[in-house]
Structure formats: C-alpha cells, structure tokens
Amino acid sequence: MELSENLDEKRQLLPDKSGVYLMKDEKGEIVYVGKAVNLKHRVRSYFQDSHRLLPKVAAMMRHVCDFEIITTDTEVEALILEATLIKKHRPHYNIRLKDDKAYPYIRLTWEEDFPRLLIARRPDQSGSRYFGPYTRAQSVHETIRLLRHIFPIRNCTNQKFKNATRPCLQYYIKRCPAPCQALIDKDSYRDMMRTVELFLEGKVDVVEKTLVEELNRAAQSMEFEKAAKLRDQILAVREITAQQKVSAEAGRNLDAISWALGESDAYLQVFMVREGRLIGRESFTLTGVEGSDESELAHAFLMQYYDRTRDIPQEILIEKLPADEGQISEWLREKRKGKVELKMPIRGEKQRLLAMVRQNAVIARDEAMRRMEIKERDRERALLEIRETLGLDELPYRMECYDISNTQGTESVASMVVFTDGRPDKSQYRRFKIQSVEGPNDFLSMKEVIRRRFIHQAEDAKQQLGKSHFAKTPNLVIIDGGRGQLGYAYEAMKELHVENIPVFGLAKQHEWLFEPKSADPIILDRDSAALKLLMHLRDEAHRFAITYHRKLRTKRNLSSVLDEIEGIGPTRKKILRQTYGDLASIRQAGVDELARLPKMTRTAAEAVKAYLDEYFDRATVNSKTSQQKNTENSHSVESVIRKAGDG
Question: Is it the case that residue 574 has pLDDT exceeding 80?
C-alpha cells in the first residue's frame, strides 16, 4: 500500500521493543489494537502489498491512515495494556466479547458488619468479594434466591437497616435473623456468611461438612430449634446440589472452554468444575471473528473473560492454545496469585470433558442461528405489513422515531432513533437538547427537533458531503404521540418542503396510528408483526430520550449538591461525577476508597462522606414528615366525612 511521507517516517522510527500499537482511520478513531514482542517487526508487517496479507488484515489496512505505539517493559505488560485498550475502545477489527460490560456479578459485601448478597455490574467496590461474571441476569437472581432460601441473609438496604425500630416481615418468616435489632451477634452472622461464601466457591462438600458439625454441636448442647434449622439447611444443600459429578481423572478445579464457529461470530461455552463438581456453565459470544484463526480466538476470549472474572482455577482446558500461551499463563498466575496451567488435552477424561463442552457449544450455535432465521423472517413480514397497511410506495428500509422527555419543562431533551431494515441501528441514534422552547411544551419541542433534523440534511446536501448521520432520507417517520405532536411535526416538515416523506403519530393509549391529513385512526391488530415492530421502534425512542434526560438531571443534581461541600472544587467534582454517577453511589463508597481517587485527599473524602450522610438523613426526615402530614390530612378528611354522615 502507498504510505504518506509522515506515516512512512513513523514506520522507519519504530523501536525494537515490546508494546502495543493502535491503528487509526481518517477520523482518528481506533480500528484495531494489537500487541507485539517487537514493535518494529510487527507493525512493519502490515505495510506491504495487500495480496500478501490475510483478507481481514487487507480489509482493515484499506481504512488505516495512521498508527500510534505505546512501549512497555515486558511482554506481559503489553498483553495487559492490549486487553485494557480493547475493552475501552472496542475497535471494529478486534475480536470482542459481546456485551461483556453488561455481565452481572454476585457481590458479597464483606466490608459491612452484616454482609449482604447483591447484584453488581462492575467489580470495583473495595472489601467486597465478587463471583462471576454471569451471562444471564436470571441465573444471578436464581442463585441469590436459592441462598436466601437456605440461609437467613439480610436483604434490606443500609438505610433501612440503620433506621429500623423493630424486626421486619423477613424475620417472622424466618428469612432474616434481624441483626438490625441485635437478635444475632456480628460474629455468628459472619460465620454464616463464610458458609455462603464457600457455597458460591463451589465447595459444597465443605459447606455440608460445616453444617453437619454445627448440627452435632447444637444437638449436644440441646439447642433443638437451632439443630432443626441446620438440619433443614443440610437437606436443602443436598437436594439442590445433587448434580452430576465429574470424573476424578478430569480434575477437581478447572474451567473447560470450547466453541463452535458461525458466519461472523463464535459461540463459546465455559464449564466450571470446582471440588470435582460441575457447578455451572456459561455461554458467551465473540463477534468479529471472520478471517481470524482459532489461536487468535483463544487469545481474545482468555484475555477478555479472565480480565473480568475473579474466580480463576488452577487449570484451564481449551480447544486451541493461543500463540502467546506463555505470556497469558504468566498474567493469569499474577491475577490468581498462584499456579495456573493452560492445556489442550488430546486424550483421556479431560479430552472427553472438553468434547462435551464442544457439543454444547454446537447446540448453542445452532439454536442461535435458528432464532436469527426466525427473527429475520419476522422482520421481513413486519416491513411488508407496514408498507401495505400504511400505503407506502416502498419498504420502510430506514425508519426514524422521535420522542420528547422533560420534568415540568426542565432539562427538556429529544431522541432520534433509527431502525435500518427492521433492526435498531444505534450508530445512527441522535440526542437533542431543546433550545427554543421554555416550559413543558411537547408540541413546540417536537416541531423544533424535526426542523433541526431536516435542516441538517439540507445543509449536508448543499455542501455535498453525504457523510453525516442526517444525510440519509427516512422512508418512514414515526412521532411518539397523538395528533398534537404529529401536527406540529408535519408543520415543520411542510416548512422545509419534505412533507412527501411519510409521517405518522403512534399514540400509546390505544396504540393507534394517526396520519396528518385524516381524522380517522389506523388501527392495527395487536398481534400483528407490523404493530410490534412499530411499538419496538417507539419504545426504543422513549427509552433513549428518558435515559438522556435522567443523565442530565442526575448530573445537575449531583453538581448542585457537591457544590455545597467545602474543599470540593471543579476538578474533584468532575472526578466524583465520572467515577460514581450519582449521590447514592458516592455515599456507599468508603472514605478510604474516596481518598484513593485522583486529586482527592482523606480530608476531602471525609468531608464528602459527612455531608452526604447528613444530606440523606435530612431527606429521610423530610420524607417521614411529609408522610405524617399526609396521614393527618387523611384523618381530618375522614373526620369531616364522618361528621357529614352523622349530620
């Protein structure tokens, strides 16, 4: 490929060191992140005739206009930095763990005197123990529900715990020992939670042995009520964990990883064996695998999965070893603080276990492909129904929907959501801050947004750019609302001479469609594919708008409260806002954690903690006062009614 003088000069100056390289397109966006033992040799290998490159690399290099390097002292440092940058930038040409940022964890709050089990999205709370990630939120809920059934774990918030004046219902149905009322001491409660921790680690045999020992002690001291509870817990543990044991030859603590390849995705299965027992199975999808070999796939999954999980076993069985097996093994050992072996078994019990994982991956792939085929047929049918029902000249290949969100006229925003070929096209979504309308006027706000959208398109056409997200003309415009919002939107379109674009309003009350020139609604069958797709489009616009509105409102509230805290200036305020997002999360963080943030000191952290404790206590008192007044008003109304009845 031809190089610019600047790029050619940069290539000549590449160092003979390990590190990471970032390939960039003409917009400066990172399209690929890679690591290298020798940056000079690795990066230069990309800049050669395209016919000598792999198809995926050749396709990428057609978009590469610049590159950047970061040198490291060791190959393992390069490996870690590569994983961090891929997670941060999610480059188009890297293999990516699909939606890995959304995978939930089970959090055991050891930093609290009386720990709880919570669901967490990020394993970042100091002092807590995390288990996961889990691909299905449902499995997390089921696990927590199961453990609360076996063990009486408190599930109230710290605020409720602090303000409780008597035991709650959970105590009376024997689901909580009421630590809020000191009906169980701290040491006894934490001993129980250590048993819960063993259960989550998969050490079910140890849990059962511990419970049996406690049962025997309770029976000997004639604590029969306690013994009965322990007996029920033992029976529950035996019943629920009566699952298939793995052969002893396969190993006592390991993960087995295999996959099945689709057209552009890889479908992976991870079987987790702990203490010789198969304790769980997780399913994952890797995107962007086309043109990659299985060694690259293994590298991408190991780095992205074990970067997030806290539970790393002694042994990992995998379908194909990555090319940088040594560096990954060293990285895993550092994370685990102990021995970790990567193995690709070819015979014996471990190979049979891996074959079972592979079979499950094939089933998962085939099921995913079947669901995709069904969705594709449903989308095609829905688009045809929309064209026929609404009398469109062509299929609505590009549909746009608009919604307004505000709170009594403040932080008024709008959303533009785009569906391409019946699918959400999130790269085309846009958000607007309402500029010309004061107060809660959804009609004028909608008119402003539609004007701005089509003015952008006209300006783009005038400059003959054709590259902006407003350049494409929609085949169908949907307005979230009834006749009012639709009328103002259509008025804006007429003013800009784009009224030939089909536009309809979708009113939520009856899910009726309205068109600008007809008084009669268009009523679609509730079960029709067309209405379901239009409702999906409308609901997505509503979600996108309200999410943006809440973000602005939270940012405003957060800033206004932090402004009141002595010692918290613009820099510290920005760091707190970016790290935690809302006041409740800042309050839940400990002083030590706050003090570790950049630009923060312990004095500033203590000031934040003290102010927020007072702020939330004051809010609680105000809430109780308001409830009391409402009760008194209710009683006075009842008294008036009673007297009127007596009269």
Answer: no
Query: Are residues 273 and 203 in contact, defined by beta-carbon separation less than 8 angstroms?
Result: no
- Please, which residues have CB within 8 angstroms of residue 598's CB and are 6 or more apart in sequence? 575
Residue 19 zone, left/alpha/beta (φ > 0; ψ -120 to 50; rest):
left
Has residue 100 got a pLDDT over 90? no
Q: Which fold has domain 563-640?
A: DNA polymerase; domain 1 (1.10.150)
The residues of the chain that CATH labels 3.30.420.10 are 251-367
Which position has the token pair 């785009």? 418
Topology given in CATH for the domain delimited by 398-551: Nucleotidyltransferase; domain 5 (3.30.420)
Could you give the CA distance from residue 283 to residue 156 in angstroms, rounded to a whole number?
31
Residue predicted with more confidence, 62 or 146: 62
User: Do 317 and 354 form a contact (C-beta atoms < 8 A)?
Assistant: yes
Nearest Cα neighbor of 237 from 292, 272, 265, 277 is 277
Every domain range in the chain assigned CATH 3.40.1440.10: 5-94
Q: What pLDDT does residue 149 have?
A: 77
- Alpha carbons 36 and 592: distance in angstroms, whole number: 37
Q: Please state whether the peptide bond connecting residue 177 to the residue before it is cis, i.e. omega within 30 degrees of 0.
A: no
Q: Which pLDDT band holds residue 283 (cuts at 50, 70, 90)? A: confident
Dump pLDDT digits (tens) for 192-218.
999 888 888 877 777 777 778 888 888
Find, among 458, 228, 255, the residue nearest to 343 by Cα: 255
Q: Residue 631 pLDDT > 90, yes or no?
A: no
Helix H or strand E segment including 278: strand 277-287
Q: Is the pLDDT of residue 12 over 60?
A: yes
Q: Where in the chain is the domain with CATH 3.30.420.340?
A: 398-551
**Dist. CA 599–CA 17, nearest whole Å:** 33
- Is the Cβ–Cβ distance between 443 and 404 less than 8 Å? no
Q: What is the CATH number of domain 251-367?
A: 3.30.420.10
The per-residue pLDDT for 242 is: 54
Identify the residue whose tokens are 């991870």: 270
Place of tokens 């300006």: 459
Indicate the pTM of the whole model.
0.60
- Tell me the DSSP string of 219-237: HHTT-HHHHHHHHHHHHHH
Residue 310 contacts residue 130 (beta carbons within 8 Å): yes
- As a CATH number, domain 5-94 is 3.40.1440.10
